UniProtKB/TrEMBL annotation:
Organism: Schizosaccharomyces japonicus (strain yFS275 / FY16936)
Family: Belongs to the DNA polymerase type-B-like family.
Superkingdom as given in the UniProt entry: Eukaryota
The name this protein goes by in its record: polynucleotide adenylyltransferase
UniProt region (Disordered), positions on chain: 322-344
Residue spans of biased composition, Acidic residues class: 325-337
Keyword Metal-binding part of the UniProt annotation: yes
Keyword tags: Magnesium, Metal-binding
Length: 357
């Protein structure tokens, strides 16, 4: 937050006259999706749905993930679930081909993934994941929404910590990072254990203090080799009782999926040692007068923002051109009508004169 990896003019969170909470809230405001970005994401969903319906007319597409939980930051992926009875492999591959033709030549179909999905990167730089009949993802997002409505501080912590992972490139599960689902349940479980089960409102705790406590808990205090977290109740069960002990990797984080208790939502985060080390470092940093250095705006983020603004500018130019063309066409039609009317008037005069003669 205080550490700018790029040159930004008058970063609002660097105003030393602000309180710690005001600075953190200013940072959250900066990293959040703007109304223009939100509208662009919604238009992209509509465009994808149009392409999909050409192949599967009865398909219904919905956002899940951050768009559904209202925790979108600039770096957030677009997560879309497609509901359609009996979508075959051929139909899925036809959808990929259509996306390659109209939206992104690099669209990929990951047929063998645990949750089969289509992935592509939009021209604005946004990453898009399309899954099929992934009802558990919708249920998970709805659950997080309900929790956030009852505990508003959750959304602030979630956006800050998603950005914190993004800065350190620890946010991608496919390279062992910590995914948004696991992170959300880490926050919920920690809030339940540390505050709500003790009838303490986390809403009254300064954000800087909450962040430091979160990093300290998951960096220093959690027994990764012993326990599984049940997030909604803040309960602990042993890995052994769940049959989730991995002898070769006892340090792995384990979180029981509230939607499907047989699923460990954190099992693929094999870079957990690196993540824990980063937790510890940030916990220490937040206790110093350089606490704001725990967060930063990176070149990756600025480049994403620049690419996005360029696409928005192109779209606006096209719309403006279309509107101006319409206006010109209307003006041309009016001019043609005026000319035609004048010709008619002239003909009438000629007729009258001829008749008079």
């Amino acid at each position: 937050m205080g550490r700018l990896l790029v040159d930004l003019e008058e970063a609002p969170w660097n105003n030393v006259s602000l309180t710690d909470d005001e600075r953190i809230n200013a940072f959250i405001q900066f990293i959040q999706c703007t109304p223009d970005e939100q509208a662009y994401r919604e238009r992209l969903l509509q465009r994808i749905e149009e392409l999909v319906k050409e192949i599967c007319p009865d398909a219904k597409l919905e956002f899940y993930g951050s768009m559904r939980t209202k925790t979108v930051i600039h770096s957030s992926d677009i997560d879309i679930n497609m509901f359609q009875p009996k979508v075959g492999e051929i139909q899925k591959r036809r959808i990929v081909l259509s996306i390659r033709k109209h939206l992104s030549a690099g669209a990929e179909f990951h047929a063998t993934a645990r949750v089969p999905r289509i992935f592509f990167r939009d021209k604005s730089g946004l990453s898009v994941d399309i899954t099929f009949d992934n009802a558990s993802a919708i249920s998970s997002a709805n659950l997080q929404n309900e929790y956030a409505d009852n505990h508003p501080v959750f959304r602030k912590l979630f956006m800050l910590l998603k950005h914190w992972l993004f800065e350190r490139r620890l946010d991608h599960v496919y390279i062992g990072g910590l995914g948004s689902s696991a992170l959300s349940y880490m926050i919920i479980g920690w809030l339940e254990m540390q505050y709500h089960k003790k009838n303490i409102s986390a809403e009254q705790i300064p954000l800087r203090e909450l962040l430091q406590q979160f990093f300290d808990f998951w960096g220093n205090k959690w027994a990764y080799d012993v326990f599984v977290l049940r997030p909604l109740t803040g309960q602990l069960v042993t890995k052994q009782s769940k049959g989730w002990t991995v002898d070769a990797r006892p340090e792995l984080l384990s979180i029981e999926d509230p939607i499907d208790r047989t699923n460990d939502v954190a099992k693929q985060s094999f870079q957990i040692k690196m993540i824990r080390a980063a937790f510890v470092a940030s916990a220490i940093e937040l206790g110093t007068d350089k606490w704001a250095n725990a967060f930063a705006i990176t070149f990756d983020e600025v480049n994403m923002h620049r690419d996005f603004r360029e696409v928005l500018h192109e779209q606006k130019a096209i719309v403006d051109y279309g509107n101006s063309s319409d206006e010109e066409n209307i003006q041309d039609e009016e001019n043609e009508n005026d000319t035609a009317n004048k010709n008619v008037d002239s003909m009438d005069v000629d007729v009258d004169v001829a008749t008079a003669v």
